[in-house]
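Job type: complex structure
Entries:
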Amino acid sequence: MNAVFYMAWQYLRYYWIKTVVLVSSISVILFLPLGLQVIVQQGSAMLTERAESTPLLIGAKGSAVDLTLSAIYFKQPVLDPLPNREVFSVNQTGLALAIPLHMRFVAGDFRIVGTSLEYLQFRQVRLGQGRDFAILGECVLGATASKKLGLEPGDHILSSPAGAFDVAGSYPLKMKVVGILQDAGTLDDEAIFVDVKTSWVIAGLAHGHMDVTQPEAESGVMKREENNVVANASVLSYTEITPENINSFHFHGNPEDFPLDAIIVVPRDRKSGIVLRGRYEEGADPLQILVPRDIINELLETVFSVRDYIMMGSVGVGIATLATAFLVFMLSIRIRQREIQTIRKIGGSSRRLKAILACEILLVIGIGTIIAVGLTLLVSQFGMSLAGVIFG
Amino acid sequence: MKSVVMVGLTLSIFLFSCSTQKEQEPPQQGKTMPVIYVSNYPLKYFSQRIGSPIVDIKFPTTVSPDPAYWQPTAEDVTAMQKADLIILNGATFEKWLKNVTLPSSKVVETASGFEDQFIPLQEIVTHSHGLEGEHEHGGTAFTTWLDMSLAVQHAKSVKEALIARFPEHKGYFEDQFIQLKKDLRSLDAKLETVIKNDLTKPVFFSHPVYQYLEKRYAINGKSVHWEAEEMPDTKMWADFESLREHHPAQWMIWESEPATEILEKLEAIGVKSVVFNPCGNEPEDGDFLSVMEANVQRLKQIYQ
């Protein structure tokens, strides 16, 4: 048996180019469906897990997928904002806890999530270092964001400007890092959490500036009337909130009208959730309430359909590859007639010859299979990050 | 047989005394007690009357001379975030609230039930700059508890918040609230009786903090903006004189005892002074009721 294996191995080694091509073809054709299956399974598990842990979402009417992806996976919001008063009205029903989300801004590559303290409790994300945000302008970093930015409690981070052409819009805000979250293995690791009021400061809805009623601000004052002071644009807003200037920060307008991108709704029980859904579905407001699990399941059905098409294609390619491999082996037997004759002349039986040829085929298929399994294992190990790249 | 009965009797008495002792003991102060944060002294008093000794009441603003202008540190806010309940006055009393993060599920604004009775502040300066429209940094008068009917509503909100958070003590909270309500109603009646002796009598208020007292008891008052320890400047005296021409009051109501020279100067022009402590901060002596009782007694000087 060792002699058969030795002869087969030596043949494969001698014609190594042919062997490499055959092994590569077989490993790729086996890996494609296996790896795809693993990636889709892990990606869908990640998507479903986060969606299933989010009972209900309220947002502006429009694409349910866009609302779900932005509220749960922190994608750039594309729907119209909804007013902050919805948080109060949901909480006042006593049926559920409403958690606001404002996600229009980023700092570097990381999304700034304006929310309430209840968000971190709801997601069960614990602090690794420092404390929760407590004062306007403070932020808490997800574990990955902290590592990639190299920031620790006590450091500062600057929000990115909304856009180069946003002349009347937001000023970058220098935020103080007060806490780092533990690694949760979710997208929360890649976010920067602030109080929703801080995100409104970045949006320019709240700001702080010198007291224009005081003589020190005279250079920026255009006109003083009995109960009104008109200042020019030289009265700039502060770009960092400090103990010295925090009292000058004020909101323009009624905070109940301020924008949110979505509200996570955590009903007290199943019945409360149904009652709440009924109220929004029957209401005339331009708002929608949805179950993220249903939306993600619909999305995954599309992903599974695509996967099925790829699998079908892979099966076709696999059959063609195996047929080609079979042809290669048949042709190689024909080409190796002289070699076969020599073996026979030195006493090799037909049985041994067949054993050598079978061993060659088994070795090629075996090595190809081992490589395919190895690649699949690698994908299963790093599938989450790959899925993260694929699903953004 | 007799000794067995004696042992049994002794054991029963011991067990009974143990159980009685346990019932009379208030819950121990410490980590296991629910922690309630309040933002002013009236709320502390109401919470204590309704919730003690079941809850541990924290009043962090005592370090500030006026709780309405307290500035919490990050440590203060972090401690409040960990509380079981945060009881606030509302009506823009907590100026610091816009700058801090508190868990909304724990926050109760006790004035939220009577927003329609809020009194807008008169002296608001609006401003505008850049491309933005005109806006103001004003608010409403916030010493809501000086109207005893509103004080009852504050206390009722405290009771409801405690029941919602600790429903197992509902009966106790209800009983305690009934007692408190009775005391506040009695105070309300006393204030009304004293002031209605002469509703037309004009008075001055040293500070615009008595709006709800003025409205509830129909006081004919006008406010100036004087500090008890700081002699008003010439312009302030001139403004005061012109105010007196239209409002010939012979009494000024102060938040605290004014400086002797102010007192003497006022008396020289025929204006006497009396203190009505709004009791926003914890008094050195007594409690909310005794301070208000003392206020009523002092008001009698004006309205006798």
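Summary: The radius of gyration of chain A is 32 Å. Chain A touches chain B at residues 87, 91, 97, 116-118, 131-136, 138, 168, 178, 195, 197, 206, 209, 212-213, 220, 227-233, 235, 243, 246-247, 249-253 (CB under 8 Å).
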